[in-house]
Amino acid sequence: MAKTNHKKKMKKMGRSRMRRAVMGTLSAILMISAIIVALVPIPESRADSAPVEKILSDATANPDTYIPAYTNTGNYPVYASGDGNFRAAYGSNGGSMTGVIVYYDQNNVISEATLEIPDEMPAFLYNKDTSSYIAVNDRREFLFYTSQEAADAVYDENGALVSPAQNQILSPCTYDTQGAWQGMQLYVVPGAALGNVELVSGNSVAYAASNQLIIPVQYVGSTRYEVDLNNVTSDGVDGQYVSDGVGVFEGATNFSRLVVPERILAIGNNAFKGCQMQSVKIENGVNSIGNNAFQNCNQLTTIDFTEPTNLKEIGDYAFAGCTYLGAVKVPDQVTKLGNYCFKDCTNLTAININGVGEDGNTSLTTIGNGLFYNCISLSQVVFPERVSNIDSVHDICYGCSSMTYLGLPNNAGSTDQIFKYDNVTGCNSLDTVKVPARELKLDCACSSNNTGSGQYDNIYTNAKVDIFSSENLGKNSAFEGDYEVSDQFCILAYSQSYAHSYTQKHDLAFGYLDSGYEGWYEKLVDGYAFCVNENNELIRFEKKDESSDGANVIIPDNIAKYHVARIAADTFQNNTAIKFLYIPASVSSIDANAFSGCTSLRTVKFDNAASVQQIGQDAFKTGVTLADVDKNGDGVPEENLCFIGDISSASVPFTYAMSTANNYNAPSAPTQYIRYCSDFPQNLQIQLVVKKNANTNEVDSATPMLAGIPTENQLKGNESYSLSTYTGSSKYVRTQQQENDIVASANSKYRNNLNNPDTAIDLTEEEQGVIDAVYHVHVPDGVTALKEDLFQNNTAVQSVILDTVAEIPDQEFDGCTSLKTFIMKESGAEGGEVIGKRAFNNCTALTEVTLPGTVSTFTEVPFAGCKELTDVGFTSPGGYACADGLLCSVDGSGNRTGVVECLESRGTKIGASKISSSELAGITDIAPCAFQNCTGIREAYLDEVSTTLIPDYCFDGATQLYYCSLSDSVKRIGKYAFRNTALSTIRIPGSVQSIDDEAFITDDGAGNVNYIQGLTVQCEEDSPAYWYCDDKDGITAETYSKTYTVTFLDWDNYVLKTQTVNSGASADAPRVERKGYVLTGWTKDFTNVREDITTQAIYEPDNSAPIEGYYSVVFQDYDGLYTWDTQYLQEGSYPTTPSVTPTRKGYKFSYWSPSNYTTIAVTGDMIVKAYYVEDPNATDDNNNNGNNGNNGNNGNNGNNNNGNNSGGNGTTGTNYTVTFVDYDGSVLDTQVIASGSCPAATTVTPTRKGYTFTTWSPSNYTSVPVTGNLTVTALYKKGTASTGESGTGDISSDTTKGNTNNGNTNNNGGGNKGNNTGAATASPKPTATAKKGAAAVANKKGSVSSNTVNRKPATTAGSTRVEVTKSGISNRGLVSATVSGSNDNFVIKISDSDEAKDAVEKALLASYGSLDDLKYFAMDISLYDSTGTTKIADTTGITVTVTMPIPDALAGYAGNNKAGAVNNGVFEKLGSRLLTIDNVPCISFNATHFSPYAIYVETNNLTQAQISDATPKTGDPIHPKWFLAMGLALLSILLFFAKGSKNKVVKVIE
User: Which of 96, 666, 737, 1280 is the 20 to 30 A CA-CA neighbour of 141?
Assistant: First the structure.
């Protein structure tokens, strides 16, 4: 029994051990699986791209008749090639057997992509039973070969059988076994199955010798044979012919090169239509190419014909649509080219159908219609002389828009001998046509009655359009309608021919083919024929049209490709018929006497005057007499010789006309100089004005003067606008009527726009030129004078520009009431420019005047009556300047020396109504009428002028002037000096010795003249002024001896100005400027002064615009709703601790945040917030101490003593608190002391890890009487205790009024700032300039500064400062950096730059391939020396740990932010650490080199919560793999613990 139990226990223990082993194994497997799942990467999903659909098209053509009728399968059975790639029809053709290719397998693979048409084909037929091609004979019988010869049995010497006897076996000749039977005797076995046939002795098998059929291939058919191997007939027919029109090879794409061998005699219709080969080689056996044979082979670039060749004909459309075909040489043996043979070969650039000889040696006699239709790239076509149907074809070069040369055959044809117009329709580049056939007419639509006496005069052909007209050549072009036949167009022909007559009728150039005249080119214009040679020499000029009067000579711009470059001396001399002469741009030289003696010549028009480089002496000495030009008989010439062309001092025709040496009259006639006019539509007329010495008759001066301009009267059609005298019909020149028609159209459109301003004005360029010429006059370079009164009362002109005019005559623009803009440029005249008397009188619309700085003279009030003019501008500094409406002469330093004119807008539109003494201080001259009609002037203080004269009319008509004072330098007052003014008081010093009797009168213009009533003259007793008043009714003398002093103070009591004024007069306020503020007034009135006055400037802050280079530091309360203080600091300086201590009920102020704000260099606007700690005893009462003098304005007048500003009218507390705080704002000690007492030295010694306490700030706190709460801050230096750097303490600047002292100096490197307990107001915005001895300054011009000067805090060895100028980073005070590898002081700059952005973007793009799934923040991190000015170049061994807030744009991605750097263009991913500082998410990383850096997020791989806090949250998305991994791990653990402990083993002893 015991033994049995023992066995059971042992068995149970074994099962337990097995269970534990199994569970342990499963636990290990599950744990390993969990780890593997966790390591499996998350896959990305990608989309497949969509397939591209390709669409093909097809076309058809017509059959041909050149190939045997092979489609009759009875006469022409079809055989196959052994590989099945070809089928050929085989039959008799005129007694000889021939083969025609009728099928091609387009699916086969062509070796090297070259297809060579076979010139012979071994015949096969397809056997359906064996699925093989088997050789046949000419009776279509299958052939066999001996695959096994008959043999007897063979025995060895012992009689043993070596090999048994065998019978002969015949096997079918399949294509696959042709290697075995080629060259052998072949047989036919009638009736035998297509298998092995064994010839057994005694069995009769009929068979006979035969040969395989070899088909000679000579044609490529026109109709395709389609193969169907599933329906092979018993006689071997394996397909049928398709309908006519489908070519044998049509549409094939499986070869790129085609070779047609010599045995091929003809290529059928459509044979290779639409094939995709690139080149074709046609050997010389082919004699015919069928219709459409290669049509639409749009990859074909080359056709190579072997010459000489048998080819005679190329069919219709044979190569049409071969759009890649580049150049073709048609064999000389071809006699016929079919209709539209090369139609739409749009890349065909060259075609040779003319052989290699100059005149052609080809056999071509017949061409079809549309031969080169729409060959838009073809440059020239030359037809050989044998072509005999040139008069019967149409459209041969239709649309050849690139063709420049067309050569016709020397054969007029036999139909109607007319070359049809549609043959060249759309050939808009055509410039040369050769017509060697005298009898060939050119299609002409001109009048049918054009019949002359000559044989070739009747050129009318009843055409719709003239063949070489713009309408025909320009048809279908992009510029159809605007197309003009090229000036270089020329027809080459014989002088006695229809072609020559055609050119003369149509004013086209003609080139001679006549022997001895080759290279001569002629053009007929207005009855004159001009002939040039290839050297551009005018070799002949003759009158051809006897019906013409010869008055117009139009030298053409071009005669063919040539032109007239030089006019020789004898070409036109003494031609008395010429009245109008046109000289084209091609002419560069006109010889001496070229037009001398042309007494009727009145107008010479230069197409481009600048192109004429030389005009010889007396070239235009026409020799007119007075009788020639005195049309009225009054002895005065009514006609002039006029040049028309561009006006410029550099123009040879212009300088010729403006020279006194080039008068054109006869010696006996009055001297006449050429008038020069600018071309239409400017139409400026320039006349040389010559002044001679009356005694010597020598020329004193010769001035090109503007004598005429277009007028509005001419524009409206009341007078002729045009200056043209041309009466012909040439396209080069317009008649007077044609120009006036343009003017009429321009006027109509312009008037319509004036009446309907909302309607768009659609003026052509020339019409706009007409409007500009009338209303906007521009007098160009070369014209130096204006005709007197030329512009006077011109009420139309709106602007005038003078390029080189040196003098404006008196009253030149008087009454130009529409003139708004006047610009006068530097003329270069010796002595400068002169502006005449009242030159712009009553130009009531004038608002803009610009004059050169070289103006030397202004005469009397040039701008009188210009009430809208507020300024006169000068292009450069010179002798005059205008400011505040005063036009004055100035010295070299810009100081006023004299008054030319006070603009009438002074006091109303510009400047003050008072002429202040400072404005005219020191001037020595006032021009007559200087202030005339200045109705905006009320007061004139001339008490500092140095002039001796108040000139005539000086203030005449200044109707609002009520006060004037004169200086002691004035000695005389002129006539009407103060006429019609409102003077009530004038101060006249004793220096004045003479006063005109009418100086102070009123005159109503109706004869009522009186003295100014109620005028008080302040003068010295017994002075001339005193006695002047004695007999003047209404004028009273008031003697004076009392003056008063007016002192002007700036905001800081700086004396800006003192002025002595007479009793009752007004003082002159200085100009003041205080940056950041706006002057709003003065504390005391300084008009009607009756006592000494001190007045001070009053300002208000100007927050409308920031000051460049300054930023605001705003100290806000904890909730941002209240501003305790504002400092305006220059970029790079440091904030200081505000004097105000924030209060909050229930709380005690602790520190400002960021706590290190005083060490942050200002690079932008900054906000610092107050932080508090709970204190139940604290109150929120801003009036408890002197720091906040909010109860009154007296705080602004406190005195600064030792840097401390006493409070205002706020309630003063009895006790104050002195708080000792650590570097981070934590409170170390407090003292409560009575007002006026000094704090005791604290017993606390602050400590800070890694630093040594140096002093308290302020260091002299124990000697400062307390007048308010005081905060004393602990200062440290890094490392062990040592003496701090010496330096000057911060300079305190109080913002309140009073005396100012500097703050104390701290020799331990810290700054000591004076405490401001005055009114709690924002610090004023600073200016850059400080006054000596004060922190707040006023410069001489009145600009003031209240800047608190901040010195950089002293740095200890190894310290690092960070400057952040990169935008997009909030909480910049949290940015810090630690430098490793150096003990030097550094500045780290985190900035923005385009280079950094570009580098980061390129590196990220190279690393990730796309920026779509990235968010990044690029920045430049650079290392500078301790001054922050010198960038460290060698950073070897230096590493910087940068800690910064996560950029604003990436804050939402929190823990997904990473750091990276760009190193040599490669993006390096850095190890980074995420942390939180003051509840702000930050990132920290090591910078090992200084190059562009980036904070970035991979948005397609977000693994943490996208919230501001980097701390993981339960709502973060978790990939399912983590659930699986965790589940497996949990099961593993459960199994491990579930396997139980080992059972104890009990040994049983029996």
Answer: 96
Confidence of residue 834 (pLDDT cuts 50, 70, 90): very high
Measure the CA–CA gap between 732 and 721, rounded to whole angstroms.
Answer: 19
The candidate with the shortest Cα–Cα distance to 134, out of 215, 183, 194, is 194
Q: Smallest Cα–Cα separation from 505: which of 487, 530, 523? A: 523
Query: Distances in Å between the alpha carbon of 1014 and those of 104, 621, 1543?
Result: 125, 74, 139
Mean pLDDT of 454-467: 75
- Of residues 1121 and 821, more confidently modeled: 821
Burial 1118-1148 (b: 16+ CB within 10 A, else e): eeeeeebbbbbbbeebbbbbbbbbbbbeebb
In contact, 319 and 344? CB cutoff 8 Å: no
Structure tokens at 803: 């390029």
Average the pLDDT over each of 62-71, 229-238, 512-521, 996-1005 and give the range with the smallest value. Answer: 62-71
How far apart CA 374 and CA 345 sit, in angstroms, is 7
What is the mean pLDDT of the segment spanning 441-465? 70
- Residue 1216 has phi, psi (to 5 degrees) of -130, 160
d(CA 988, CA 1039) in angstroms, rounded, equals 10
Contact yes or no for 1407/1467 (Cβ under 8 A): yes
Give strand pairing partners of 284: none
Q: How far apart are CA 204 and CA 506, in angstroms?
A: 97
How many beta carbons lie within 10 A of that of residue 359, not counting itself?
A: 13
Rounded to whole angstroms, the Cα distance separating 1097 from 1092 reads: 17
List all residues 6 or more positions away from 285 whose beta carbon is below 8 Å from its beta carbon.
261, 262, 263, 264, 265, 310
**Which of the 8 DSSP states describes residue 14?**
H
Q: What is the pTM of this model?
A: 0.55
In the block, tokens 């093909």 appear at 56
**Cα–Cα distance between 136 and 211 in angstroms, integer?**
8
| pLDDT tens-place string over residues 535-558 | 988 888 888 776 677 889 999 888
938 and 915 in contact (C-beta within 8 Å)? Answer: no
Buried b (16+ CB within 10 A) or exposed e, 1340-1368: eebbbbbbbbbebbbbbeebbbbbbbbee
Strand-pairing partners, residue 188, are: 208
Are 533 and 519 in contact, with CB atoms under 8 Å apart?
Answer: yes
Between CA 1264 and CA 1292 the distance in angstroms is 15
CA 836 from chain centre, in angstroms, equals 46
Asked if residue 1190 lies in contact with residue 1196, where contact means CB atoms within 8 angstroms, the answer is no
* Bridge-based pairing state of the strands 1215-1221 and 1270-1278: parallel
Q: What is the dihedral of CA 762, 764, 770, 775, to 10 degrees?
A: 40
Reading the block at residue 654, the tokens are: 């212009």
Residue 17 phi/psi, 5-degree rounding, is -60, -40
Nearest to 1245 by CA among 1257, 1265, 1268, 1229: 1229
Residue 125, token pair as written in the block: 């037929």
CA distance 183 to 34: 78
Q: How confident is residue 459, by pLDDT bands cut at 50, 70 and 90?
A: confident
Sign, Cα dihedral of 1329, 1333, 1336, 1337: negative
How many residues can be counted in the chain?
Answer: 1550
In three-state secondary structure terms, 890 is strand
Supply 168's token pair. Answer: 């002969």
What integer pLDDT is reported at residue 21 of this predicted model? 65
Q: Which residue has the higher pLDDT, 1298 or 1453?
A: 1453
Q: Are 98 and 91 in contact (CB under 8 A)?
A: yes
Kindly give, in sequence order, each residue whose CB lies less than 8 Å from that of residue 344, ignoring residues fewer than 6 positions away. 320, 321, 323, 373, 374, 375
Paired with 1361 in beta bridges are: 1387
Give the mean pLDDT of 214-227: 94
Q: Which residues neighbour 740 within 8 Å (Cβ) at sequence distance 6 or greater?
A: 717, 720, 721, 722
Q: Report how far apart, in Å, the C-alpha atoms of 482 and of each of 243, 508, 1135, 1487 are.
A: 50, 19, 74, 69
| CB proximity list for 609: less than 8 A, separation 6 or greater | 643, 645, 646, 648, 651, 652, 653, 654
